[in-house]
Amino acid sequence: MNQSLPRWVDIGLIPLANVLLAFCAAGLIVLAIGADPFAAVKFMLAGALGNSEAIGYTLYYATNYIFTGLAVAVAFHAGLFNIGGEGQATLGGLGAGLAVLALDHTGSALVIVPTAILAAAIFGAAWAAIPAYLQAYRGSHIVITTIMFNFLASALMVYLMVNVLMAPGAVAPESRDFADTAALPLISDWLNALGFHVMESPLNLSLVFALVACALVWFLVWHTPWGYELRLMGFNATAALYAGANPRRIILLAMMLSGALAGFVGVNEILGVHHRLLLDFALGYGFGGIAVALMGRNHPVGIVFAGLLFGVLQQGGTELTFEMPQVTREMVVAIQGLVILFSGALALMSRPWFEWSYWFVGRKLAVRKAASA
Amino acid sequence: MKATARIVGTLVALAALTGASPRPVAPAYVYSMGGKFDRSFSQALYEGAEAFKRQTGIPYVDFEISNETQFEQVYRRFVSRGRDPIIGVGFSQTDAVKRIAKKFPNTRFTLIDGNIDLPNVMSVEFREEEGSFLVGVLAAMASKTGKIGFIGGMDIPLIRRFACGYAQGMKYADSKAVLIQNMAGTTPDAWTNPARGGEIAQQQFDRGVDVVYAAAGSTGSGALQAAADRGKLAIGVDSNQNYMHPGTMLTSMVKRVDLVGAKAAMDAKNGGWKPGHAVLGLKDGGVDWAYDQYNKALITPAMKAKVDQAKADIISGKLKVHDYQSDGRCGV
Fold it and tell me: Which SS3 state, helix, strand or coil, does residue B87 take?
C-alpha cells in the first residue's frame, strides 16, 4: 500500500517517531547495563540544551554536520555518493590554514578571513575534483575513489604537518598559532557585547555561514537551470543526456561544489576554534554528513534539523558520559548509530502504521459525518 | 618501590618551595584519544588513578574524549565541579590545558607528555629515547638474522623519537644490524588497530626480521600476538607487556605514567604538589626496560651485562642518546 499522507506527517511526524523509536531502543541498552534510561535522557537533553554553553557546543557541532550534510546532498542530487567528506574537510582546513599562515602578518581580518574561506572552498573542491574526473572520464566508481581519497588526505596531512608545517621546537605536530586577527568571531562574544550573558563556547560565525550555504544550495539546486540538470541527472542519467545535458560536466561541478561545502568544516574548526593547523580536526564529520543528508532527505531545511539532532547527540552524549560514568563513549556511539539506523535505513518502517492510522481516523470521521448528516 | 622513590625525589627536587596548605583533594584524570584501556599510556594513567584510590580511599573521576575539541570542554567541566588536581596524558591536550589553566589559576593541573610554563601546571615528559635505546640493544643481541623491526602508530615526532632511540641502541650493540620500520597508518585508527599491527609484523617477519618493537598503542598488541604465533620475539611498550606472551616477549620499554599520575594526586593530598617541568629518563626511573619472570629465560647473561652497562653509561652521562625531537633528525 502506498497511500499518500499529508506532508506534515511525512516530513514532521514520521521522522520524529523514528527518533523516538531509536531512543526507546537505546533506552533498552542503557537499562541493560543497569542504568536509569530516563535519567540518561534527562542528562543528554540537559547537557545539549540546558544552558547557553551547552547550546553553544550543540550548535557548533551542528555547524559541521550541516556543511557535510549539504555536501553529501548536493552530490546525491546528481546521483553521486560522496563518501569523501572527511578528506575534503581535511583539505579545506589545510587550505584555510595555509591562507592564514601566509597572510596573518598583514593584519587585516577583512582580507584574511575571506581569503581563508575561499581557500578552504578551493582546496575542498580540488580534492573532490580528482575522484570526479576519474568517475566522469575513466569510469572509476566514485564511492571507492572518494573513500580512498580520505586516506590520502590523512596521509598528506600527516606528512605536511610533521615535515613542513610543524612549529619549530614543538612536541605536537601542529603549526604555530595564528595571529588573533585571523580568528572568526565567537558568537558568545557578540552576545555578551550586546548585553546578553552567555557562557563561552566554540560556536562562531561559521554557523551563520552554514545557514547562508543552506540558502545558496537551495537556490542553486531548485531554482537554476544548472540545478535542474543536476537533479535530472540524478533521476535518470540517460534522460539527462537525451535532454542535452553534459553528464561529465555535471559530475565534475557537482562534486566540486560538494567538496567545497565539506571543506567549510575546516573553516569552522581551524579558523573558528583551533586557530592553528593540526591533525584530525575533521574526525567523523564527513561520515556523519552522510547520515545527516539521509535523514534530512537531501533538502537544506531537513539537513539543518538533522544537523541539529546530530549536534544534540554529540554534545548530549559527551555530557551523558560525564554524568553517568557507566555509560562509555562507545555506548554513546551505539546510541547515535541507533538513531541513524531508525531514521535512515528503517525510515520507512513506521510509515505503514501512520498510513493505517490515517486511513482509520479518516474513515471514522467520514462515518461520523455520514451519521450526523 | 625504588623507581617511585626516585621519581618522587626528582619531582620534589625540581619544585620550588612555597609551602601551600593542603586542600581537599578530588582528582580527575583525562585520557588521550586512545582511550582508557589502550594497554598503553592511557591505561597506565588509569592504573595510577586506581593506585591512588587504593592507597587513600579517595575516589576519582575520569574521562575518555571522542574528539579533540572536547578536551577544553571536559577540563572546564571538571574545574566547575571543583575537581583538583586535574591530570591529563598526551601531547594533544597541551593547548586545552594551557587555555584552561590560564583561566582558572586556583586549580592545579598535571600534564604528562606535554610542556606548559604556568604557575599552576606541572608538566612531565619522558626520555623515551633512552628506554628505546636499551630495548634496541637487547633486540640487536637477540636477533639471529641481524634484522630487527619497528612498528609505530602514526609517523609523528613522538614515535620517531622511539624509533630513533631504538635504532641507536641497535647500532650500539651491533653496527651491522638492519632496522626495518613501518607505521601502522595515517589516521588515529592507527593506534587502535591490532589486526593491522599483526599484518605489519607478519610482513616484517617475511623480510627476515626476528625481533619486533611496537610503539603503536593497542595496535601493538596485534604485533605481539603475531610474534607469538610465528615464534619470533617482540618488545612491548609503555606498560610492562611481558606477561602477554611469555616465551616470545623479549622485554617491554616501560614508561611510568602510572607513577606520575598517582603521585600528582598524592602530592596534592599531602600539600606537596608543585608546578614545574620534569623530564624523566633512566636516571629518574621514568623509563626502563622490563625484566621479570616472564622474560628471564630469553635474556642471556651477555645481553644483561651489555644492557646494564649501557644503562649505567647513559645514567652517568658517558653515553648520550640523541633525542630526535631536539633537532628533528636521527642521524642513524
Answer: strand
What are the pLDDT digits (tens) for B262-301? 999 999 999 889 999 999 999 999 999 999 999 999 999 9
Q: Nearest residue on chain B to A155, judged by CA atoms?
A: B186
Burial environment of residue A151 by CB neighbours within 10 A (0 to 12, 13 to 18, 19 or more)? middle
Sign of the C-alpha dihedral computed for residues B201, B202, B208 and B210 taken in this order: positive
Q: Which region, left, alpha or beta, applies to residue A18 given φ > 0 means left and ψ of -120 to 50 means alpha?
A: alpha
Distance of alpha carbon B55 from alpha carbon B124, whole angstroms: 22
Report the DSSP beta bridge partners of residue B279: B125
Are the C-beta atoms of A364 and A41 separated by less than 8 Å? no
Does pLDDT of B302 surpass 90? yes
Residue A278 lies in a domain: yes
Using an 8 Å CB-CB cutoff, list chain B residues near A331. none
Q: Collect all residues of chain A within an 8 Å Cβ-Cβ radius of residue B196.
A: none
Q: What is the DSSP string of A134-185?
A: HHHHH---HHHHHHHHHHHHHHHHHHHIIIIISPTT-SSS--PPPPGGGSPP
Domain boundaries, position A200: 36-325
Architecture field, domain B128-255+286-320: 3-Layer(aba) Sandwich (3.40)
Question: What digits encode the pLDDT tens for the residues B132-143?
Answer: 999 999 999 999
Question: Would the CB atoms of B91 and A280 count as touching at under 8 Å?
Answer: no
State the ipTM, two decimals. Answer: 0.76
Name the E strands within B12-137. 28-30, 61-63, 86-89, 109-112, 121-126
Any chain A CB within 8 A of the CB of B155?
yes
- What's the sign of the alpha-carbon dihedral A307, A308, A311, A312? negative
Domain count, chain A: 1
d(CA A289, CA A70): 8
For residue B222, the tally of other CB atoms under 10 A from its CB is 23
Residues of chain B with CATH 3.40.50.2300: 2-126+256-280, 128-255+286-320
B62/A contact by beta carbon, under 8 A? yes
- Asked if residue B264 lies in contact with residue B122, where contact means CB atoms within 8 angstroms, the answer is yes
Amino acid at A332: V
Residue A277 is classified by DSSP as -
Q: Which CATH architecture has domain B2-126+256-280?
A: 3-Layer(aba) Sandwich (3.40)
Alpha-carbon distance of B312 to B294, in angstroms, equals 24
Question: Cβ A202–B69 below 8 Å, yes or no?
Answer: yes
Other CB atoms within 10 A of residue B21 CB: 5
Helices marked H in A161-298: 187-193, 206-223, 225-235, 237-242, 247-266, 285-295
Rounded distance between C-alpha atoms, residue A185 and residue A268, angstroms: 11
Contact between B245 and B234 (Cβ < 8 Å): yes
Q: How far is B124 from chain A (nearest CA, A)?
A: 13
Q: Which of A166, A173, A280 sits opposite B188 (nearest CB)?
A: A280
Closest to A335 (Cα-Cα) out of A34, A63, A71, A28:
A28
Q: How confident is the model over B138-167, as pLDDT tens digits?
A: 999 999 999 999 999 988 888 999 999 999
Which chain B residue is nearest to residue A270, measuring alpha carbons? B69
Q: Tens of pLDDT along A25-61?
A: 989 988 988 889 999 989 999 999 999 989 999 999 9
Single out the residue of B215, B216, B155 nearest to residue B186, CA to CA.
B155
Report residue B301 CA to chain centroid gap.
27
